[in-house]
Amino acid sequence: MPASTLRIGVVAGEPSGDVLAAGMIAELKKRYPDAIIEGIGGDHMKAAGFHSLFDMETLSVMGLVEVLSHLPAILKLKKQLLAHFEANPPDVFIGVDAPDFNLRVEKALKARGIKTVHYVSPTVWAWREKRIHKIKAATNHVLGLFPFEQQVYDKYHVPYTFVGHTLADAVPLEPDQSAARETLGLSCSGPVLAVLPGSRGGELKALLPVFTATMEKMKTLLPGVRFVIPAANQYRFDGIQAYLKEHCSAWLSDSDYKLVKGQARDAMIASDVILLASGTATLEAMLCKRPMVTCYKLSPLTYKIMQRLYKAPFFSLPNLLANEALIPELLQDDVNPDTLCDYLLPLFTQDTTELVSRFTGLHQSLKLDADKMAADAIAEVING
Length: 384
Description:
This protein is of the alpha/beta class.
């Protein structure tokens, strides 16, 4: 291998990071067509020309307490990854989200003289602001998705570029519901509820039982409603399908729902209302201009810790971006079928004109050609 061959290390820890990194990788490939781009990633990154050395599923864990049982596997993965990059040093390493893992990798590589970039700012604006010092020590540059992050990085003199969000570039400002329903084979008439219980195993375990119980109740409250349930990948598809067959067959017929793989955006656009786990999916739902109810359930201990540490007024991205409660957010005991139905049912008949207008304004604020801006910033780090 010629010494001049550019090497780029990338690690994404979950499906949303896989999507972000894929667009960035495609743009980097335009600039450096012969570059070796490798690390940890998912199907979207692989399709863009990325070589994944390890399974991304190992890193797809969320929650302060929930991570503990996965810690031995995560530490082993970190050791193997660092050994690979020590033997094959990249010209730049890009950690995409997964800050608890990636910042440690970045710090170790930076100490060895390797340039590092962190893509997706940790939520220092919401909790544990002092993490900014660890970020500064670990990275040469941070790429951020949201405009409100800039002031925190300026305050601590950490190099930062607001690049917008690749989803804002990918989703049309006026999504076509009829076309999405046709793509999914759904009737153009009748109410549709999109149900997204999360992409991580822990999320599904916590939310799928509640969400399916909510679906059962919605069937009685809204006759004729159909459900579309997107799964992040084949593994999640199989798990959800097995759960539905085992626990819901008494009330859920095949004609009541559509389980799809990797078509979350089509599912959201095809729907009238969305029920979903909090996370990047709420941003995509906002871009799809659909009313939604978002919720999350943490372990009791994690929840108690977060209550003490989390300082932002909201936890869903649409509300954080708007700095007001555009959508309902529910946590812990409020995540139950009765409460969820109380919030969901009115959304099927309310006038959404004002909500769509607000969502559109937020969409435009994030539509900056994020993949290109991220690649430009990374190229500056490589050449700097």
